Predict the 3D structure of the following.
Amino acid sequence: MAQIDNIRKARLKKLEAIKKAGLNPFPAKSKRTHLIEQALKKFPQASRSKKKVVLSGRIMSLRSHGGATFLDVRDGTGKIQAFLNKDKVGEKDYTFFLENFDIGDIVELSGTLFKTKRGEKTLEIHHFRILTKSLLPLPEKWHGLQDYEERYRKRYLDLLLNEDLKEIFVKKEKFWDVTREFMKKNGFFEVETPSLEITTGGAEANPFKTHHDDFDADVYLRISVGELWQKRLMAAGFEKTFEIGRVYRNEGSSPDHLQEFTNMEFYWAYANYEDGMKLTQKMFREIARQVFGTTKFQSKDFNYDLSKEWKKISYQKEILSQTGIDVLESSEKEIKQKLEELKIKHEGESRPRLVDSLLKHCRKNIVGPSFLIDHPKFVSPLAKEKENEPGLTERFQIIIAGTEVGNGYSELNDPIDQAKRFEIQQKLLEAGEKEAMMPDWDFVEMLEHGMPPTCGFGFGERFFSVLADKPLREVTLFPLMKPKNG
């Protein structure tokens, strides 16, 4: 820290020197005429151009040789070498630059383009101007930010120094662009639903709670992308809707768990989970091809191809095969014993929570792409029960590389059945199950007015992180961090 403090003191002196020279070290506007990418693309055929250009960007390196200095300057589109010559700008300005400009400063450079003897495209500086004087140094180029926590706290530096990381977020933007385009191309109408709710619905998770002063009522940040709201739209006569938005879950922190993230959910009237499986398979393949240019992926533990057949795996049979536990027949005592034997941590003591912990253990061994189907009714409070197989539901989860990356089902639209399941969830909440689903009795009333058969499906950033083979926190621009003094 002492070294950083000394650097900052030295730069503060340079800041004052710039001000004394009558220059504003933080002007409001640049006179830039070209982005660096544009300048490089429009580079003249001849080795030297007479046309003046004005470029702006951050100084990433400085190399002085006698009366000349080479700079690497980067803006948001690319990097270019710049050449500052004492004979061109004059000894006074050249000395002023060397004494008061540093790596990390943001500058405006005007001049002409030429190629060095080695053929490198370069800007010859005729005039320079400070746009932002940096008071703290950038991390060392070759070492960067090594500590993960420091990287996330100073994400701006991490992105500045790591072009590969920046490219991940370029792909992530395209990931959602392709998703939105696919949904609209298939006739889905984009909607916006509340993110503050009186009761959270659509998932089993512990919500964030706050208070609405005007209503004098507790409200919750949503844990799904408007599932119960979009179903209301099905009752209202909309037949295909989707929403891409942020959701919030008050859960533990890890490289693969976030408290805030982006999901997409769609609802499709007069369709069932079989229709949903066909559509989502097509969508996932489209996303992979357009964003990553392939359907074949490799990670540390898995190799998979989204273009190949997606197997359908029975929830009950898969757990039975891997653990010897029949989730429909085994007692809760037997399930607990198996969890202890496998050293699996679990939250909650109810059958749904115990079985879900077993599933998460087994899921890690599924390469995929696969559809996990036939979920028990007691872990699927919003899914329609199978007509010929009581106790099982018309639900599917997409499993890729040992990870769940999507969840959908034929939506339960029987108000009597839904009310009974909500009553069960209410008892679980009263027993202390934080992740049990909050009953929404207004939703039940809507079902009594009639909602058509509907397929619903949701997926989110986890699918992108799996394809990118990165932890979920790594593909999040600014993951939530614990306060330093906390």
In short: The longest strand covers residues 53-65.
